Amino acid sequence: MTKQSHAFQAEVAQLLHLVTHSLYSNKEIFLRELISNASDACDKLRFEALADTSLYGEQPELRVRIAFDKAARTLTVTDTGIGMSQDEAVAHLGTIAKSGTREFMARLSGDQKADAQLIGQFGVGFYSGFIVADRITVESRRAGLPPEQGVRWTSDGSGAFEVEAITRAERGTSVTLHLREDALEYADGWRIKELINKYSDHIALPIQMEGEQWEEGKEEGQPGQMVKTGEWETVNQATALWTRPKKDISDEQYTQFYEQIAHDWQPPLAWTHNRVEGATEYTQLLYLPSHAPFDLWDREKKAGVKLYVRRVFIMDEAEQLLPRYLRFVKGVIDSADLPLNVSRELLQESRDVRAIREGNTRRVLGLLEDLAKAPAAATPAPTADDAAVTDVQDKNEAQAGDKYATFWREFGAVLKEGLGEDAGNRERIARLLRYASTTSDRASVTLDDYKARMKEGQKAIYYITADSLAAAKGSPQLELFKKKGIEVLLMTDRVDEWSLSFLREFDGTPLQSVAKGAVDLGDLQDAAEKKAAEEAAEAVKPLIEHLKEALKDSVEDVRVTTRLVDSPACLVVKDAGMSLQLERLMRQAGQ
Ligand code: ADP
Ligand code: MG
């Protein structure tokens, strides 16, 4: 078959331009991306082979080999993974299926460090090869296809790529980079080992390089040189990090592992690593990222936890392992009990999975409580499951308060969804909430703080919802509360209204919106004030009747209020009604 030329999808061409022009000062990430693809390809083969072992063919070994040729100026990454058919090569290396790409490009800031971090997150990894190469050749053969159905893909990364059929003896893929003049440093054994060590040590797959040894010059005066020995040596740790004892794992290693699995090059905020024993046995290694991903609010957003069964990778994005309101958590679960051929459908019904999910939820909430340094009363008694956990370690002592503030800024609005989603943990979640209030502009007030500051005779926790802090603070509905010195929580997240409909009371005290119904301050209103109000009401009765008539198509009722101090009038919602804020949101959404 002859060569076929294909144009890159427009987005890819644009992306390539950006990648090569804006990321050149962060060249080295290309190797991490290629190794990560090789590792994914091996995971995919291992998974498909669970149903069909013949896919291994003659080659049972899964591994990655990195070779370089100084004279030819090439670097080649070869794996024995799933490989690609010709159609797959065209589809996967010529288009970008992910909708996040546009978002990626919109987010490029011109700051190379920040931009480089985006690359992995948005899955544009393969194309990063063009940062260091002026031509890339990929040769591949999909597992299960005969040798004649191999494919060669090649491109100089400008507008197009070519594919042709080849015969390829081995299954899997090799990616050869023809290095640019200014990237020749990567055709060097030490440099490559350094990068593997830095980025890919914990890939649970051997990464091998050909051994080299020094050979003296044969004759007097002739310089010596490094020559290849022909022996392949494994240069990474190649063990799954989570299976190692905690005491043998450094913080740096935990952080590196996070970077690999989360594709996030900013260190995590905290993590928790436990082996849980008992009825359901599993290992959990869960991380809290330090910043929100771009697609946190995407309804299709996938969960961040990978599922392994006895160290065999089963699936990414195992959404059954954590509730949706903890979707920002990244990590690995390795189950000792699930069958290897477990499917997503099966996961939904599995008792073990339910136990793991509950255990994970408890553990993450516990981690958050540690970060928040919740008061002693807020710490729940250990449960049976917790007691079975051996050797717990949570790395959060330092600046826990700051870390919680960071967590809250990035993910607080997501955690609030838990009030509605997870009735069983509502108490615990409620204690983790932080709000701004009339005494604090920062979202730092806990419901416990609020209760401790309640005025004598105050019967409810008061709050107001609005689009912004300024709008909340300027609301006429707060006037009376200000005058009385009663604190009001100021809520500005879209989810506040909805989530609070599930939190009717906290620790025995009802929550009450100041914008709903007649605010009854009860004992906080003195007798003289009440009397004055009644007299006033009597005096303006004719006016009220007049207003009711004039506004009868727009409002349900008009009444005299004591809630205002400076403003002449305000709108309120009847008790059971939708709040003004919710109504505004619904109108925005076109309802
Ligand atoms: P991502 O890894 O996030 O999917 P990449 O740009 O790194 O994005 O890779 C694009 C796609 O190309 C992969 O999803 C995969 O289908 C294919 N691919 C890349 N490298 C390999 C490989 N070594 N073996 C098999 N498929 C690969
Ligand atoms: Mg990739």
From TrEMBL:
InterPro entries assigned: HATPase_C_sf, HATPase_dom, Heat_shock_protein_90_CS, HSP90_C, Hsp90_fam, Hsp90_N, Ribosomal_Su5_D2-typ_SF
Keyword DNA damage in record: no
Keywords carried by this UniProt record: ATP-binding, Chaperone, Cytoplasm, Nucleotide-binding, Stress response
Pfam families named in the record: HATPase_c_3 (PF13589), HSP90 (PF00183)
UniProt subcellular location: Cytoplasm
Region described as A: spans on this chain: 1-344
Gene3D superfamilies hit by this protein: 3.30.230.80, 3.40.50.11260, Heat shock protein 90, C-terminal domain, Histidine kinase-like ATPase, C-terminal domain
Domain Histidine kinase/HSP90-like ATPase intervals: 26-183
Taxonomy, superkingdom: Bacteria
UniProt cross-references to CDD domains, sorted A to Z: HATPase_Hsp90-like (cd16927)
Function per UniProt: Molecular chaperone. Has ATPase activity.
NCBIfam families: PRK05218.1
Family: Belongs to the heat shock protein 90 family.
Subunit organization: Homodimer.
Protein's name in the database: Chaperone protein HtpG
